[in-house]
Amino acid sequence: MADESPLVELRGIRKSFGAVTSLAGVELTLGRGEVLGLVGDNGAGKSTLMKVLAGAIQHDSGEILVDGESVRFASPAAARRKGIGIVYQDLALCDTLDVASNLFLGREPRRGPFIDRAAMHAEAGRILRDLHVRVPSTRQEIGRLSGGQRQTVAIARAVSTQPDVLILDEPTAALAVAEVEQVLRLIADVATRGVGVILITHRLQDLFRVCHRITVMYEGRSVDNALVSQLDTNSLVDMITRANATDADKEAASDH
Ligand SMILES: Nc1ncnc2c1ncn2[C@@H]1O[C@H](COP(=O)(O)OP(=O)(O)O)[C@@H](O)[C@H]1O
Ligand SMILES: [Mg+2]
Fold it and tell me: Where is the ABC transporter domain (predicted)?
């Protein structure tokens, strides 16, 4: 039954760009209310995989199941309609617009032909309060906010579309310590509401703070998967580096 299916299941996802194989067969599952850490070296294929799930890139082969139903997204809008939300690493915020305008970009509340600014700011305030996101004012230009505030506004924008799945690509990579805390709290809060979150990160502290499970990628493949509760720092580092070491060993062996 649909309730017993994972929220998301990726089976054997492959994608090449010309001669470059970015994804060489990836398996991944995500449950409701679960925070899945997606880890692996630069170039492992994490961002490409998430763009496939979010409809920004079309895969060559393999299957995407959402709620047990096989889907293929022709566009980001099609993925959004199926409840997939994503925050890209570059955030895609508009620096010269204020907080409320960024939250509602392209779907501003209207009164006749005009944007209803009063309603937009009131609703923006409500969304941010609900998510415990603190900014000086919804009328503040985004370009004047700190990195952490910009990141939380970008996440709030994705969350306000009420996705079932929220993908975050390295949301804490460029943040100061206090800002990281705000983003991690927001992630935990969103998951508590039943949203499945996929968190791409290089920060081991973040994995231990908010993730229930991690999937490790290496050179376009998913190579390992484990519950965070069964890992400590050493075993996690081992897991992430094992794939690389195994590969290096193979190369060393074949040199002889
Ligand atoms: N549009 C593209 N065209 C060609 N190669 C790409 C494209 N997007 C990603 N790649 C390649 O795919 C591989 C995986 O990249 P990426 O998914 O960004 O890895 P990660 O996010 O794990 O660092 C890299 O070798 C990258 O250069
Ligand atoms: Mg990436």
Answer: 8-244
